[in-house]
Amino acid sequence: MSPLDLKAIANLLIEALGKQIGYASPGIEEFKAAMKKTDTPEMYIDMFVMWGTAIAQETMDKEDDTLSVLLNRKPTSMSQFIKSIMVKM
Q1: Which of 42, 61, 79, 89 satisfies CB 3.0 to 4.6 Å to 3 for a cystine?
Q2: Does residue 1 fall inside a structural domain?
Q3: Does any domain span residue 79?
Q4: pLDDT truncated to tens, each residue of the chain (89 aa)?
């Protein structure tokens, strides 16, 4: 299984929806400003920034079997998860 970046997840959503959606990768300050406009609490904005930064720096691209061990099964792929959610909508 290869790691997914946010662009790849956007592409999976496009595939599942069968239509184009916009994908943007704003800078940190632009992202923070946009989140503040939605009244998102500062602690969540900071958490999203740290998460996005970690993804961009590929520090989360580590394969690990911890989730499989905890679930006692193979985890659902992002593609399978998105398709299952789209069926419910």
Answers
A1: 61
A2: no
A3: yes
A4: 566 788 888 999 999 989 998 888 899 999 999 999 999 999 999 999 999 899 888 887 778 899 999 999 999 989 999 999 887 76
